[in-house]
User: What shape does this take?
Amino acid sequence: MNNITRRNTLQLISAGLIAGASYSMLPRKAAAAGSITVLNWQGYGTDEAWSIKAFQEATGIEVVHDYYSSEAEMLTKLRTNPGAYDLVILNAARCAQAMAEDLIAPIDYSKVPNISSVAENLRANENFNKDGKGYAVPWVWGLTALAMREGLPKADSYAVLGDAAYKGRVALQDDAVGVIAAAALLTGQDMNNPKDLDLVKETLKGFKQNVKLLWSTEDQWNKSFAAKEFDVAMYWSGGSVRSKRVSKLPVDFVVPKEGGIGWVDGLGIPVGAPNAEGAHAFANWMIDPKFYVEWATKAGAPASSNVAAMEALPADDLSRQIHKPEYIATMSIMSALPDDRREAFNNLWQEVKAFYAE
Amino acid sequence: MKQIGRIYLLVVLFFLYTPIIVMMAMGFNESQLYELPFTFSFRWYEALLGNKQLLTAGMNSIIIAIITSVLATSLGTLAATALARQTFRGKSLLQLLLLPPIAIPWLITGTAMLVFFYWSGIGRGMHALLIGHVALAIPYVVLVVGTGFKTIRADLEEAAMSLGSTPIHAFFSITLPLLFPSILGAALFAFAVSLDQFVISYFLATPGYSTLPVQIYSAIRKGFTPEINAISTLLLLGSMTVILIFARFAKPGDTSDKR
Amino acid sequence: MRSEPLLNEAVRGPSGPRKHRLIPSWVATTALLLPTYAWLTLAVLLPLLTMFVFSFMSATPMGKAPITFTIKHYRAFIDQPYLLNIGWTSLVIGFWTTLLCAIFGFLAAVALARATVGRMRETLLILILLPFWTNGLVRVFSWTMVLRENGFLDNVLHMVFADAASISFLYTRYAIVLGLVHGYLPYMILTCYIALVTIDDAIIEAAASLGARWWTILFRILIPMAAPGLISGAVLTFVPVIGSFMEPRILGGKVGVTMGTVIEDQFTQAFNWPLGAALSFTLLAVVLAIFATFSGVLRRGAAA
Assistant: This one.
């Protein structure tokens, strides 16, 4: 009895609160006719103002954005907002998880004509496919490797991160998966499943004297680099193009002999998307050479998965020089991690960070 | 002695305003990466005028902060009154319950709200945003106003009542004026909590609806430009003007002669 | 509901008989408390309770992974001993921040209450609180520009001593504490000021005319008077500082590893809500224990 009363009271209170608060301000209808809602990082291609405008002129579809600030948050938003989003940008490593949980629906490639020139290697990536169906349109790819201040001798190995010549001049990415991948490659292991985690841990701990800071955003990277706080860092290929072109920073992107850490981002359509038709059209637009060339040359972008789009770039374009086509076949790509391995990675990185902080 | 006190206050003000001055200065600095040396430029203010998204977000933030401030201050003052003036068992527990919202990092509270609001059907949107903001501001208000109560002697009210005043009248004519500085301070803090609060807005706003902290928070991935400094400067100077004018025309000297 | 008989008892409570009671006391109490606590319960306490339940689960309960109940996340401090160091660092940072805020905030409140009057005092108080109407992230970020090598601090120094070495201390624990003190000082000033503003000049003048030295006035009159303010201020500082992650991350560089950042990583990177939640509730328990001990000591001190 007591329980029921209490629950009723609570419901009444909450109903009252909601009614009171929403009378004055009804939330905006997210999915008006002729619009799509995109879930992405802010400032990552889909929300370029000129492109949204051109897309609306071409198709009549308005593009609304919602942002996430971590991939974990992206999954949470998908789970807690069914039917709110039409298109979501997800990394291959996270796509498998979204697929397994039925958060995203199969892609109808007949509505994405540009798929014909997308690199087959990327389209067939196991993280994007399940039971013979594709669940994401490969959008862009890139590498995480080294970035060095111009004029310094170009390093040929991740070992430079521990080189005594760069004492206090190194910035690592504050990302467990990223740093462990670098240390795994350096010690000759599979970056997605290193067998000897202790060796990885010791390798990372060995960088302690050199590490000045841990960066987590491109913004932080740029500002610290501009303030000359470090000379060598782990960095994204696309980020280095933007830093050099937009921010005019003297930075060289270096892929060491152990290879870069490859990643692919895909465009997925959530289950129950109110405007899947529009989402397909926008996905096609996103891998169109015309959009890509403008994005890559105006803002600076990772490499398009569409080979035709890469070839449409001027031959001397920085992005084209950094993202060599052969990488598509040779680079290791970050892929989905089982929960226990992810937890082990994160605990390892916490321990290393605690060691750095001592 | 008074001179030393005033000089000390100036030093404290200087410390408090150091980053604010830097923030304002950098809004007029040419470099997108906040590089020194300083080169004067209006470029970011011009950019801001064309940035409708940022301006709307700034406006939204102010509206939410005002509503939050009013609601949280009223609710918090009510609760603080009961906690300070009434005796009942379970009071310590109620006071203890104010701590978790302050102690648990906002990120966790925000995630918890996102999940709970989804499960309970409250959902996302302006209403959810307000529910969250007000709730996070309430503990601050109760603690600040509660401190105010501790310094007012309850016997003043008793005296008024023994002279024939009703409890409610005694409260409004004696206690409330004495509490005024605490309530004002609490309201200013509730406003600040709301303006600072990005996590809740980030998780609970409808797609397309945005507040200034959300803009700042999502911009840190790509890089926030001095436009953010520009709008923060405008917001601060605007609110400073309004509130100082308000203070100028409010009844003067209330706090100094009432003991 | 449980509280009803308790409230009835309050009517017979020690507050004594009053004249002119129009409404019974428990009705008033309930009416005053219900809206606020209902709001708090719905918006924060129930969600946090949900999180508390999550902290006993084997995996984040939003996915498809099978969920079992476990207390392993509460064993984290045993299984991963390096967390103890991090936790200790957080407590030390919280302690120093609170202490510095208390000293500077108390003095500022005394100065406000004793050295200023009327409109000037109100204006100063508002000026002290207003910086906090800017976003915290922007403020912390501005500190990095002050503190970094060749930042504002170095520039000012070089204006005076052209050849001086850099005194930049960005990416140290001092920078973290500085940023935190800056962020929480106004709370302390406000609460101390509220406690001190009612002070009677006559008391201090009487004490002084009786030959009391300044330290007698400070320790016998001012600090006891400010005590409620110091305590609320300490709560409003220490409690959130322990879990803060923005200041350590941005100002601390590689030394900016605190419980706050560990917890944040569980939510943003590791997607391990149960562990993150368990760590924050452990932290909450530690904070409550510290305050319980502290208030016990205070009470004993008062009784003696």
The two ends of chain A are 56 Å apart (CA to CA). Confidence is low (pLDDT under 50) at residues 1-7, 9-33 of chain A. The first strand of chain A starts at residue 35 and ends at 40.
